[in-house]
Write a structure and sequence with these properties.
Length: 187
């Protein structure tokens, strides 16, 4: 066996171990997020394996490539379903929509503003500040050439909405890990 295969096997073992303590819905969300990040298509489940619970919106694989969800929901309906309570949460929801429904994983703030208008939402007081705050909060992450992208934590947050408790829990996991790193540096 080559070294590369041993490394892949070790990585797989680590990933499975890390996912073991999560619920099947959380496991599916992480697998979907990783697949989106790397632009991978997951194979159809075989009949011999147990299926995970379906997500709120089914996933399809368009012929042109990319990883996006069905496009039968308008941005207005999506925002109504997710019920964001602030401009920052709305930015996260719109970023999620761009990524999964418009196959646009990298975007500028102006793209968020245009989608906000299309979703018939009230104008954001300052979309640039809202987007910057979404980055600080961890919903968005920087991408190349000044673009932004939804972060893994942001995806989990939006997927959990409108369940506020589950959404907070998704972000709390991120914050706990971040604090742990800061305290490790102090030692």
């Amino acid at each position: 066996m080559s070294t590369k295969k041993k490394d892949a096997a070790a990585v797989l073992t680590e990933v499975i171990a890390e996912l073991a303590d999560l619920t099947s819905a959380e496991q599916q969300n992480i697998v979907n997020t990783v697949s989106t990040f790397y632009g991978l298509h997951s194979p159809a489940p075989s009949t011999g394996h147990a299926k995970t619970a379906p997500t709120s919106t089914p996933v399809s694989h368009p012929a042109g490539g990319g990883f996006s969800e069905e496009r039968d929901i308008s941005p207005k309906e999506f925002i109504m379903q997710k019920q964001p309570r602030s401009d920052v949460e709305r930015v996260a929801c719109l970023a999620y929509y761009l990524t999964h429904y418009r196959n646009t994983p990298y975007f500028k703030t102006v793209d968020i503003s245009k989608l906000n208008v299309e979703a018939a939402q009230s104008k954001m007081s300052n979309a640039t500040v809202a987007a910057a705050n979404a980055v600080k909060t961890g919903y968005l992450a920087a991408a190349t050439k000044g673009n932004k992208q939804i972060s893994a934590a942001g995806e989990l947050f939006v997927q959990a909405l409108p369940d506020r408790e589950a959404a907070r829990a998704a972000m709390a996991t991120r914050k706990r890990k971040r604090r742990a790193r800061k305290s490790a540096k102090k030692k």
